[in-house]
Amino acid sequence: MTKYFSQRGLRFLLHEVHQAEKLCALPQFQDHDKESFDLMLDTARRLADGLLYPVFQEMDRRPPELVDGQCKVLPQVRSILREFAEGGWIAAPFSQDEGGMQLPVMVNTACLFIFNAANFPASGYLGLTTGAAHLILSFGTEELKETYVPAMLDGRWQGTMALTEPGAGSSLSDVAVTATPTDQGYYLISGQKIFISAGDHDGADNIVHLMLARIKGAPAGVKGISLFVVPKLRPEGAALVPNDLATAGVFHKLGYRGCPIVQLSMGEAGDCRGWLIGEPHKGLAYMFQMMNEARISVGKQATAVASGAYYASLQYARERPQGRPVQSKDPHQPQVPIIEHADIKRLLLFQRSVVDGALSLLLQAAKYADLSSHGPQEDRQRTYLLLELLTPVAKSFPSEMGILSTSAAVQVLGGYGYTDEFSVEQYFRDMRIHAIHEGTTGIQGMDLLGRKVRMQDGLAIRHFVQEVGSDIEAARTDGELAAYGQRLGEALDDLVRVTELKKALLQEGRIELGLADATLYLDLFGLVAVAWQWLKQGLVARGALAQGAGEQDSKFYLGKLATMKYFFHYELVRGKGLAARLGENDPVTVANQEDLFSD
Asked: How far apart are CA 455 and CA 307, in angstroms?
């Protein structure tokens, strides 16, 4: 079986770096232990190897089709959803009362990463249903829970999040789908939605949309948005009947082809029924639960795609002979595997630094999610703020850097990488959606700089500085890592300095100028956050080597240290340029008027 992730590397992060088993001391997770976590990882690997990876390329080459108003997908999708359900994966993080395993988010994230790395498009169906079911359980009535959740957790009904519209895009304040009240306990829904992932397919018996709409007479903007359950087929007694919801089209995509993205039309016959979740006009607040979960999930998916591409290019680099050492002038000397060339090593180190650095950051965010919900009461607010702060970073760093990482995989293969005989071209195409999904990178940057770093007068970023600072302090006593701790400290100082500069602009009311370079700020924050994760990994690796690790483990830990050094020497240094620009107030983009783009 082709390798698409490192089981050893995943366990290193989960157990040695982030010490997942400590979560078992919390009442919510007391039924678990290290052995049960490892069993979950092993089970996930077997499912991924046997069920997902074998159809990875086939799903891409046989994309969904719209036939007589029904979206048709690869037949294996149905069996994949059933297998996921039978194994308890759709409900794994839910409480036992809700039909779940009470699995920590951190461990669930690690398992889903395996699925994503094996076949990102196939695993997308799972995550959407989990998120939609969780939202109904969190805010829905008992009737909605009983009607929809069991069939979703059984893998028979697909869940979605239906936000985007033709005239709204990412601007949710412009949502125009309408909901008209009736005296029958439901609303009549009318309008269109676009870009709805898994929004229609024959791999499930029904599709359950969690849909944003505006009740007639509601306030303008985001304060007038409500959330509804809008099924494709509505339950009436023991039957399922059409709900006046049609698939108007299936989008043809660059990548991520195995999971359909569709356009929906509701209420053409005036009888599309939706059921309100929670209170009127609070839909966006409810939906943000699913959106925030989805943003971290997008980062995880991007990391997993980059992982698949990395291991494909690593295998090729080890097997492909080409050229000779640059110092050799003898054409009769045998060719060497390309992995012996310095620039190929650079491309591979770059990929590994992105994959393992981003994965560690995602597990860190998942750990904060567990602690903010189930940790000691006095620590929940701090970990909640850290999770909020890191969410846009954990979404965007792997999404943007993953594009570069999968591109590096193509480059390792050279001309072969540009052909569909090798998988890296599919990884490259599959990667591109992540910087768009669940809020573009620009939106994430504005969320981070405009809102997250200003929460509670900057308390979240102060907590972050303390977290990073504790690992910098630990590195000071290590002869090899002290210099890297100092480098991270300097980068952290730059981040704090430009944060204060930008906050001052925003406080002065110079909003456009203050947020103009929010994406650059997000880039800088991501470099600092991932360098922190690499320092954490370096500290653990150094400790293991000092304790006398065996030969095979020593190679693993030395590889970790080499990749850490690469990230600091090649990637973190880019932060100086970002900090320099962020320290300027020259309105280069703000001042550029539309007519200046004329030829």
From this structure: 34
